[in-house]
Amino acid sequence: MRETTVRLTWDQVFTWRMRQQFVAPRSGATPVAIAGRICGVQAQVTSAAETAVALRRSTGGPGAVVQALAEKKLVKTWAMRGTLHALPPELAAAVLSLMASARTWEKPSWTKAFGATPEDIDALVSALADILDDAVLTREELVSAIVAQKRFHPLEEQLRSGWGAVLKPLAWQGALCHGPVQGSAITFASPARLIPGWPGIPDPEAAAPEVITAYLAAYGPATPESFDAWLSRGSLRKATLRRWFADLGDRITEVEVEGRTGYLLTENLEALAGTEPASSVHLLGSFDQYVLGPGTNDEALLPKAHRAKVSRTAGWISPLVLIDGRIAGTWDTDADDLVVTMFDNAPVPLAELETEAAHVARALGRPGLSVRAD
After folding, report:
1. Please, is 326 exposed, middle or buried when counting C-beta atoms within 10 Å of its C-beta (0-12, 13-18, 19+)?
2. Which of 108, 184, 311, 366 is such that its CA lies 20 to 30 A from the CA of 286?
């Protein structure tokens, strides 16, 4: 990796990140291209995934993510931080490889919490190769097929849990992913059977450069620690993580942003260093990657005093008001109003927000939203 004396400002970084992530300007890119650029869209809540993509597109309303999933151009699976994401297949396979490499299900604390041993997980992976061979099953059908085998009887309660804790290690090893929705029921399938041209789960050493460079292209400059927090909540071995970054060699460059050092793709250095900060007001939806990428603990992006307003109870991430790329407030909808709450009683930029509200209305499929200050 290269070291330079390049010094950047956060105003430059946020302006550049918004451009990289299709926040400003919006793009005519496909939902698949957008999901790839921002390293997946969180899909725990389908409407949030739709809003994340629609607000990055210059035209179009909700439904693009569901359509891309139906066309098997995106795959929905438990990925970063054990949460559901929709990702392009190649990137999904690489992310899953790194998630699996952490082997979190082999830790005694995990076995104690969820009752499944490492041997159970290995046996489940083998069983699913037969159970999901050319089959798409609802959760009820999947669990019934698994517990038909006597050795899995003790896992039935956990397998039926909506949290999917025991299913996640299976997803990380490529044994299952979410399949097409059947009415209100979710389904599961083998990605190798569901996704045309599924690449299979690569070796972590091959996957690491792909995932790290994709992350830095959207969220750089960043540290190995922030990458690991985004990916696995700090579950990767520190020595392995540092080696993966070091092995990128001259592909990454260390830079300084107002006293904080981090790594950037060398190919992006000139563009970022030449970025002129721009004043802007933008709205993003709940669970948006713009904040999940660097993390809600990043105080340059989100002031510590206001973190609890964005990262709320039960893991809910609020919709965001961005002022010059920094999180400066939150918003919600109430009937035909888009209700904005600014931090520190800051003035509400009503004129700019009215323009943004039109994009939110399009993204939500709810025409006629008017801005109201809380």
Report:
1. middle
2. 184
Distance CA 145, CA 128 (A): 9
pLDDT value for 283: 98
Residue ranges covered by each domain of the chain? 1-280, 281-373
Contact 340, 331 (CB under 8 A): yes
Residue type for position 307: R
- Contact predicate 167/116, CB 8 Å: no
* Averaged pLDDT for residues 285-297: 98
Question: What share of the chain in percent tops pLDDT 70?
Answer: 99
- Tell whether the torsion through CA atoms of 15, 17, 20 and 24 is positive or negative: negative
Tens of pLDDT, residues 48-98? 999 999 999 999 999 999 999 999 999 999 999 999 999 999 999 999 999
C-alpha triplet 195, 45, 96: angle, nearest 5°:
40
Phi-psi region of 289 (alpha: psi -120 to 50; beta: other; left: phi over 0): alpha
What is the amino acid identity at position 5?
A: T
Confidence label for 205 from pLDDT (cuts 50, 70 and 90) = very high
Residue 28 tokens read as: 């005519």
Neighbours of 241 (CB within 10 A): 21
Polymer length of the chain: 374
Report the pLDDT value the prediction gives residue 4, as an integer from 0 to 100: 66
Structure tokens at 66: 């569901």
